[in-house]
Amino acid sequence: MSIDADIEKIDRSDMLQVIHSLPDQIEKGLDIEVEFNAPGNVIVAGVGGSAIAGDILRVWLEPSGRFLHVVRGATLPRWVGEEDVLIGISFSGNTRETLACLDEGISRGCRILCITSGGKMEDVCRSKGLPVAYVPGGQPPRGAIGYLFTALAKAVADEHTLRSEMEVVIRSLRTLREKLVPESEENVAHNVAEQIVSLYPLVYADERFLPIARRWKTQLNENSKKHAWFGCFPEINHNEVVGWDLEDGVDRFCAIMLRDEETSGRMDVTIEELKGKTKVIEVQAEGENLLSRMFQELMIGDFVSYYCALLRGIDPTPVDAIQRIKMR
Question: How far apart are the first and last CA of the chain?
Answer without folding.
Answer: 36
